[in-house]
Amino acid sequence: MIGFFGTLFARAEPKLSELTVRDAPAIAALHAASFHRGWSEQEVETLLADRHVVAHRALCGGKLGGFIITRLVIDEAEILSVAVARARQGRGIGRQLLTLHLRRLAGRGARTVFLEVDETNAAAIRLYRRAGFHEISRRANYYPGAGGQSAAALVLRRDLQS
């Protein structure tokens, strides 16, 4: 009986896969819900059609739970955006996406990965630091904030083993 209830209430593992242009509407909606200035469907479609872009998604029960999008040129990659649906946060989806993504980037020849993160986004900073990223720079007053306040962007880097 306990096994039945455990199965009934167990969280299904997200299904991780590559993003396609067909995902643009869902990506744009999640991006808009996650950031001050969201991307339009057309902006997402343009990114996903770019041969230098590597992108993954997490599907949870058939719905978009999160995504990660990176531009890779030669051996340097820049993570452009990572988002996890608010209802799915705190369940390890961001970590799973980032882990898969970094492996794929290394497999495609990336030696260095960069990203920018809002200095007030403690959860994201914790995720990136646990994944081996370290701060190399800071851009003051980069992100607009509530009440006219702005926040710095932390520029993070991680070297990958090829």
Task: Give a short synopsis of this structure.
This protein is α+β, with helices and mostly antiparallel strands and 162 residues long. It has helices at 2-9, 24-34, 41-49, 93-107, 122-130; strands at 15-18, 53-60, 63-73, 76-84, 112-118, 134-144, 150-159. The model is unreliable at 4-10 (pLDDT under 50).
Topology of helices and strands:
Elements: H1 2-9, E1 15-18, H2 24-34, H3 41-49, E2 53-60, E3 63-73, E4 76-84, H4 93-107, E5 112-118, H5 122-130, E6 134-144, E7 150-159
Parallel strand pairs: 4-5
Antiparallel strand pairs: 1-2, 2-3, 3-4, 5-7, 6-7
Q: Over the alpha carbons, how many angstroms does the gyration radius reach?
A: 17 Å
Q: Helices and strands: which structural class?
A: alpha+beta
Terminal-residue CA separation: 48 Å
CATH class: Alpha Beta
CATH topology: Aminopeptidase
| Low-confidence spans | 4-10
For the largest sheet, list the strands in their spatial order. Answer: 1-2-3-4-5-7-6
CATH superfamily: Gcn5-related N-acetyltransferase (GNAT)
Number of continuous helical runs: 5
How many domains? The number is 1
- Percent helix among the residues? 25-40%
The CATH architecture would be 3-Layer(aba) Sandwich
Q: What profile does the largest beta sheet have? A: 7 strands, mixed
